[in-house]
């Protein structure tokens, strides 16, 4: 049963289950990278733990759906108000860039010092041609250097800008997003072969649009369900992961991405419905981990690599069981990035929110219309 409502704001902290889901998605990515980084020749020379965590990349697919959901849920009341574009852009870009730049500078510093200490001298991987893609996360300007996972942030930037269409006009935005979704589905099914610039033809964009749909539904209607539905949806999500990883289309296929997008959207819709009915209890520690999952996602590779290198230099990397080395690296990476999130990312976000308030104050009321 659905009825109109204005639900509690996502960022009020009441939707802990969504934050927990974000934490689990980040953890899946961390597990995958910790195992994959072992394949470097001077470490283990193979993917750790027999590749049991190879599925971890599905956490990124979940993030794309979650991104569409959060943007729509948070900014739903601003749709059709062109005057809200400046504060919207400030809010979204100030959320993504500052902590990314912190992690980028930290990665450059640690990597450079490591090379210098090993006698390789001072050298940098970034050239002038890499600045747009690496520093400003612009799509189509090369893979990001130093923070490899930032490729997904390039899509985020595209999503943020695309959402401005909805802020300009609800009707035009709905038509544009609907047409975009139909095109992406047709392209994934091989019905059209047209390529679009800056990643606009990627299945990840369809995942984002599925999140937008869930966010809009969650703001327009009272979604209600039971814990039994969550169990069914989670089983379906696991089945979808197996389909994507080991199914007939192979991993990273367009079909798999679409399936993951649908499954992730179903999980989010179910969690929102349970939150509305106060039918789900989420551990506070898991929700807190979700609140800093961005820092975890951005920085985990750096600290996993650093831990492996330290263990290697100490002469105990190969003396310890692989699972122990893996666990140590995971623990160090999660602890360090969680501290970065708590003491750098969250204070930065709070400070920038104050600045956003100042921007809100200078937006002319006459410029705000539906």
Give a description of the structure:
- This protein has helices spanning 16-36, 58-75, 85-117, 131-134, 151-168, 170-188, 203-220, 227-246, 254-276, 284-291, 293-313, 322-362.
- By secondary structure, it is mainly α.
- The protein has one domain (10-363).
- Helix 2 runs parallel beside helix 5.
- It is globular, with a radius of gyration of 21 Å.
- The chain starts with 15 loop residues before the first helix and ends in an 8-residue tail after the last helix.
- Residues 1-9 and 363-370 have low confidence and may be disordered.
List the helices and strands and how they pair.
Elements lengths: L15 H21 L21 H18 L9 H33 L13 H4 L16 H18 L1 H19 L14 H18 L6 H20 L7 H23 L7 H8 L1 H21 L8 H41 L8
Helix pairs in contact: 1-2, 1-10, 1-11, 1-12, 2-5, 2-7, 2-9, 3-5, 3-11, 3-12, 5-6, 6-7, 7-9, 8-9, 11-12
Keyphrases for this structure?
single chain, 370 residues, mainly alpha, 12 helices, disordered N terminus
Per DSSP, the total helix count is: 12
Overall tally of structural domains: 1
- Give the strand tally: 0
Order of helices and strands: HHHHHHHHHHHH
Helix content: 55-70%
How far from one another are the termini? 28 Å
Quickly give the structural class.
mainly alpha
What is the average of the pLDDT values? 91
Alpha carbon gyration radius: 21 Å
Sheet of most strands = none
- Note poorly predicted spans: 1-9, 363-370
As a percent range, the share of strand residues is under 5%
* Overall geometric form: globular
